[in-house]
């Protein structure tokens, strides 16, 4: 039986634009490994991985929107290759397009509101079809695309049967709140009139605000980001301050099996006999050969979306400043994003061969090689709720240079910190000067203190960022809000439940969609029926 259902717009490798996909693609796996079977459900987009995967339809239904009845199917990924059940909601004509949020050219589809409300309703319609004792014990919603669910289950008449299920809402990015005008209010399912104010924030329907109000618990992906949201969150500050009692900050984990230097198939050279020096040297050589860099200079890389949030626009000036002042280092950039910064990087690759290069692309395999072969990874983010790239970098022995913000602050203490906890180099202000100063510290450490570089590599590769630790903290939240997770036995299950017997027969596929071998009899709390 699925105990925790993660509801999200992304799940790696099916659909990913950023860290949200990584988290939803691994948290359910590790929750399931810890004994709490968890699944994820996302919309069925027309994307390569989804097209190539095999799907089994487990539910067919309809939802109403704007006086129209819209048919949909819920399909399960056959064979559970991800290590947990992945479901997609197929709504013909609504999600079967080649982009997650925008078309491949970056233009909005224009019906985001219908799409997001429709997806959330479809998930709830599906859950209604489960006999009550087979329903998940927690609905875990991620980011604003699923932010209306905690409200819908409480106040939309069609879904109120689901109101006893505790909801958790996780903020991966507070910048996007999904707000829309009340003019579109007619797209929402019918609800109790008095519940209108629970949707509203500053005169608009705000799914993120609504989830903060109605969720049983709210989490975000680091303690520092939680604190920062209280100071500045595009208008939600007072709401978040008011709801502090139910808020948690939990750093993300990384999938230590995907990110394993000893076996990563995307690397040119894996770590052997724990010889970190040889691992770094061989992987750096591969990058230097590909990009024409000298091997005896520090290689400083940036990987990520080339957008303001990630601070990528600071890099052209910062890198040029080091190059022009004779700093001996090479710079490599991988990512896609805003046109101005991308073009600037292209120009620099032309102007500074052997010093700077850029790959304007999304390339998972090259990213792995860059984490393994670089000396430093720079993350000058303006905002960084958690940040995963610094964790991947550390796992592969690359020293992070980060701005002291959000999750970067919580995971990368500065090497100069007096308590000896240092893991990298930090700078505070979002200015070219501060970033350049940090780059110079890195370059000088490389030439003047190779012993420290070496010691630091060993140290950061040994830090355990795996999900195993993190999962325990989520389980604690679930328990704090009263979710009956952990035991296969349904809570307070009467010995004989006539309606339950009936509904299991009416919806026979539902109990069979979990990961277990379908032939294994399920423990439902009922006495087995003798045939
Ligand atoms: C978002 C945040 C990033 C975080 C990720 C996963 O992409 O920008 O900092 O690591 O979500 O929670």
Characterise this structure.
The chain is an alpha/beta fold. The chain is built from 17 helices and 17 strands. The protein has 2 domains: 266 residues, Glycogen Phosphorylase B (Rossmann fold); 186 residues, 3-Layer(aba) Sandwich (Rossmann fold). The C terminus is likely disordered. A 9-stranded mixed sheet has the order 3-4-5-2-1-6-7-10-11, sandwiched between helices. Strand 6, helix 4 and strand 7 form a beta-alpha-beta unit. The longest helix is centred in the N-terminal third of the chain and has 17 residues. The structure holds alpha-D-glucopyranose (GLC). Alpha-D-glucopyranose (GLC) binds next to helix 1.
State the shape. globular
Q: What is the overall number of helices? A: 17
What is the CATH first-level class name of the largest domain?
A: Alpha Beta
Largest pleated sheet: 9 strands, mixed
Main β-sheet, spatial strand arrangement: 3-4-5-2-1-6-7-10-11
Helical residue percent?
25-40%
What ligands are attached or bound here? Answer: alpha-D-glucopyranose
The CATH architecture of the largest domain is 3-Layer(aba) Sandwich
Short characterization:
By secondary structure, the protein is α/β, with parallel strands linked by helices. It is built from 17 helices and 17 strands. It has helices at residues 19-33, 48-52, 112-128, 149-155, 207-214, 223-231, 237-242, 276-291, 315-324, 339-351, 364-373, 389-395, 406-411, 432-448, 450-461, 467-480, 498-506; strands at 4-7, 38-43, 55-65, 68-77, 86-90, 138-142, 167-171, 200-201, 204-205, 217-220, 247-249, 299-303, 330-334, 356-359, 376-379, 399-403, 425-427.
């Amino acid at each position: 039986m699925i105990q925790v259902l993660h509801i999200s717009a992304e799940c790696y490798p099916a659909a990913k634009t950023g860290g949200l996909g990584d988290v939803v693609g691994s948290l359910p796996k590790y929750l399931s490994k810890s004994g709490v079977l968890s699944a994820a459900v996302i919309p069925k987009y027309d994307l390569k991985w989804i097209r190539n995967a095999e799907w089994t339809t487990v539910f067919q239904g309809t939802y109403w929107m704007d006086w129209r009845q819209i048919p949909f199917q819920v399909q399960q990924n056959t064979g559970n290759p991800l290590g947990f059940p992945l479901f997609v909601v197929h709504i013909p004509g609504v999600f079967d397009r080649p982009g997650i949020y925008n078309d491949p050219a970056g233009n909005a589809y224009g019906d985001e509101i219908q799409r997001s409300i429709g997806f959330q309703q479809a998930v709830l319609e599906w859950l209604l079809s489960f006999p009550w004792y087979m329903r998940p014990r927690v609905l875990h919603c991620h980011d604003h695309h699923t932010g209306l669910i905690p409200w819908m289950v409480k106040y939309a008449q069609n879904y109120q049967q689901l109101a006893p299920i505790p909801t958790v809402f996780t903020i991966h990015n507070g910048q996007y709140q999904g707000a829309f005008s009340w003019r579109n209010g007619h797209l929402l399912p019918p609800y109790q009139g008095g519940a209108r104010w629970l949707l509203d924030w500053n005169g608009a329907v705000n799914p993120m605000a609504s989830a903060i109000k109605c969720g049983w618990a709210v989490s975000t992906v680091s303690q520092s980001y939680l604190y920062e949201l209280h100071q500045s969150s595009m208008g939600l500050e007072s709401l978040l301050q008011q709801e502090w009692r139910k808020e948690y900050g939990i750093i993300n984990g990384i999938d230590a099996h995907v990110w394993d230097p000893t076996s990563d198939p995307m690397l040119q050279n894996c770590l052997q006999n724990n010889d970190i020096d040889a691992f770094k040297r061989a992987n750096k050589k591969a990058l230097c050969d590909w990009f024409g860099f000298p091997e005896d200079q520090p290689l400083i890389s940036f990987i990520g979306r080339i957008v303001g949030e990630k601070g990528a626009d600071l890099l052209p000036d910062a890198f040029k400043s080091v190059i022009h002042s004779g700093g001996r280092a090479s710079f490599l950039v991988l990512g896609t994003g805003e046109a101005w910064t991308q073009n600037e990087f292209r120009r620099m690759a032309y102007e500074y061969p052997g010093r700077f290069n850029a790959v304007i692309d999304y390339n998972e395999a090259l990213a792995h090689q860059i984490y393994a072969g670089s000396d430093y990874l720079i993350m000058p983010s303006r905002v960084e709720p958690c940040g995963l790239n610094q964790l991947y970098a550390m796992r592969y022995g690359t020293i992070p240079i980060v701005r002291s913000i959000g999750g970067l602050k919580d995971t990368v203490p500065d090497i100069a910190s007096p308590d000896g906890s240092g893991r990298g180099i930090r700078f505070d202000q979002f200015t070219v000067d501060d970033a350049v100063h940090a780059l110079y510290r890195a370059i000088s450490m490389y030439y003047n203190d190779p012993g420290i570089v070496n010691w630091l590599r060993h140290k950061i590769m040994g830090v355990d960022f795996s999900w195993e630790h993190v999962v325990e903290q989520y389980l604690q939240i679930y328990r704090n809000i009263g979710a009956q997770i952990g035991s296969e036995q349904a809570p307070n299950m009467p010995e004989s439940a006539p309606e339950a017997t009936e509904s299991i027969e009416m919806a026979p596929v539902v109990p069979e969609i979990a990961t277990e071998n379908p032939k294994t009899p399920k423990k439902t709390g009922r006495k087995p029926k003798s045939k």
